[in-house]
TrEMBL record:
Belongs to the PPR family. PCMP-H subfamily. GO terms for molecular function: RNA binding; zinc ion binding. This is DYW domain-containing protein. It comes from the Eukaryota.
Length: 591
DNA sequence: CTAGGGTTAG
């Protein structure tokens, strides 16, 4: 047109720029920019706004901003284009800053809550979610209400996602419920929030609810569902969801595949995890890390290291998480020398600088192996302040190696760092008890009473078909309670013959000795195992999970039960898996 | 005239 000598007025340019933006034709756009200058329209705000959008879309943020800054009145679209530009390159902080300028400028120009639209809010919510900027969530929520976008699907989804990522799952759920949306993405976001918040039951319930409303899922939701199963340790559930994905004809992509590996591992079946792992077509570092970490948690240290070598052979570079898992694997297998080698060479070999987590892991390894001096040396020379993980590792080491001094020092630091946790007091009491320091035990009991620290009640679960059976110490409310207690009674004689002596001294309950022995014998994990023995077919593995660390007395007893009853018993406690088989445990009595 | 959801450790 221009080359034909036809005069072009300012009304044509925005449309031309728009066409260039839509077709991603940056080259033509630049040419037209030149024409704008030649024809003297470079001060027209409509022309300039359309140029901002063009340059932003092409990722030329400097040019875009330069033009943008020179426009006296910017359109919402220009602001949005620039905002989106920042989000595209993960500059979320800059996006939020730009938005704050935008609010000031647009409010001056148009009045409150008017100069932004749903695209603005949606883009900014995504930035807030990525930054986990919880303090701005509420403001954004208020602004959305004020602007009248409350029930817009994009905004609902954005708010759910942002509240969730900022750790405010209750607010996320309130927005979701009040919106009464039937949008697939909003459902997916809400399911993800629940699963990331450890509310696996809610996640699975919402998935059912979604289907009963006739909303068809897509492949996105499954990674979160598998995670929900993982957090519930619900093996049957994981299998059911897995089967359903296949039935619906969705391909298990890399995200869902990685979650599935993690889920099967966390549900106690490392074999299923490995099968799922082998079926992932293009395994990423996340897939490998999940598999290596799973094997480590199951106590298969050597296999985990083999897996790591296989990974290196395939040319996949480990990241900091992989290396935590590798160290963890060494820890479970008692491979101190290997751990030291990996730890000291990780920066040189894999360009991963040891972080706090790696130090904590290494300190745990040294401590468990009884090298308490070396562990302390590392604590004193590392470039970090010792955190709860480090003191926790030292406390655990002190318990295993019966070191009262280190134990009380570590416990003191831990109680300062996490005063609300009862586990620290309990562990220290165990250390005192095993050293025969009964006044120490009594003191802790008093401190716990005075400071109102409650021992978190121990609970164990067993999943049979799709029903979850819950047990707490001494509880007789289970429908098959009578049989469960009879089974334990029946086991007491063979247990005694096999050398089991109740460890009453480690129990902190304020009751008489005989009463203690009874409580001990009816710990939740023992009840769950007894139930497993009567409720599953002979020879079937028994899977139990517990909300705390498994107790020492139960660990001893269950080892013997696995032999007496010829059963594989798998207990997932808060830290790891214990595979009891033929009188032994996969953790090698280190936990 | 621009915009939304999923994966690994401790």
């Amino acid at each position: 047109m221009h080359s034909l000598g036809v005069k072009c007025n300012e009304f044509a340019f925005p449309s031309v720029f728009k066409a260039c933006t839509l077709t991603n034709d940056f080259r033509l756009g630049k040419q037209v920019h030149g024409t704008v200058v030649v024809t003297g329209f470079e001060n027209d705000e409509f022309v300039l706004n359309s140029m901002v959008v063009l340059y932003a879309k092409c990722g030329e943020i400097a040019d875009s901003t330069r033009i943008f800054d020179a426009i006296p009145r910017r359109t919402v679209v220009s602001w949005n284009a620039l905002l989106n530009c920042y989000v595209q390159r993960d500059s979320f902080g800059e996006a939020v800053e730009l938005f704050q300028d935008m609010i000031v400028s647009q409010t001056q120009m148009y009045g409150e809550g008017v100069g932004v639209n749903q695209t603005t809010l949606s883009t900014v919510l995504k930035s807030i979610a990525s930054l986990q900027a919880s303090h701005i969530c509420r403001q954004m929520h208020a602004l959305s209400l004020k602007s009248g976008f409350e029930y817009n699907n994009y905004i609902v989804n954005g708010l759910v996602d942002a509240y969730g990522k900022c750790g405010q799952s209750e607010d996320a759920s309130r927005v979701f419920k009040e919106s009464q949306t039937s949008d697939l993405l909003a459902f997916t976001s809400m399911i993800t929030v629940y699963s990331q918040d450890g509310q696996g039951e809610e996640a699975l319930k919402l998935y059912l609810e979604m289907q009963s409303q006739g909303i068809k899922p897509d492949a996105f939701v499954y990674s979160s569902l598998f995670n929900a199963c993982a957090s519930l340790s619900a093996y049957e559930q994981a299998k059911q969801v897995h089967v359903q994905v296949l039935k619906l004809g969705f391909i298990i992509d890399i995200f869902a595949g990685n979650s599935l590996v993690n889920s099967y591992a966390k549900c106690g079946s490392i074999d299923d995890a490995e099968r799922a792992f082998r079926e992932i077509p293009e395994r990423s570092i996340v897939s490998w890390s999940a598999m290596i970490g799973g094997m480590a948690q199951h106590g298969h240290g050597r296999l985990a290291l083999q897996m790591f070598n296989e990974m290196l052979k395939e040319g996949v570079a480990p990241n900091h998480i992989t290396l935590v898992s590798v160290l963890c694997a060494c820890n479970h297998a008692g491979l101190v020398t290997d751990a030291k080698r990996y730890f000291s060479s990780m920066e040189e070999l894999f360009s991963v600088q040891p972080m706090e987590e790696h130090y904590a892991c290494m300190i745990d390894i040294l401590g468990r192996a009884g090298k308490l001096d070396e562990a302390m040396e590392l604590v004193n020379t590392m470039p970090y302040e010792a955190n709860a993980a480090v003191w926790g590792a030292l406390l655990g080491a002190a318990r295993i190696h019966k070191n009262v001094d280190l134990g009380s020092k570590a416990a003191e630091m831990l109680i300062n760092l996490e005063p609300e946790k009862s586990g620290t007091h309990i562990l220290l009491a165990n250390i005192y008890a095993s050293a025969g320091m009964w006044d120490g035990v009594a003191k802790i009991r008093k401190v716990m009473k005075d400071s109102n620290v409650k021992k978190e009640p121990g609970m164990s679960w067993m999943e049979i078909k799709d029903k979850v059976h819950t047990f707490i110490v001494g509880d007789r409310s289970h429908p098959r309670g009578k049989e469960i207690y009879a089974k334990l009674e029946e086991l007491s004689e063979p247990l005694r013959k096999a050398g089991y002596v109740p460890m009453v001294e480690t129990d902190l309950h304020d009751v008489e000795e005989r009463e203690k022995a009874k409580l001990l014998y009816h710990h939740s994990e023992k009840l769950a195992v007894a139930f497993g023995l009567i409720a599953t077919p002979p020879g079937a593995p028994i899977r139990v999970k517990k909300n705390l660390r498994i107790c020492l007395d139960c660990h001893t007893a269950i080892k013997l039960v696995s032999k007496i009853a010829s059963r594989e018993i798998i207990v997932r406690d808060i830290n790891r898996f214990h595979h009891f088989r033929d009188g032994l445990c996969s953790c090698g009595d280190y936990w």
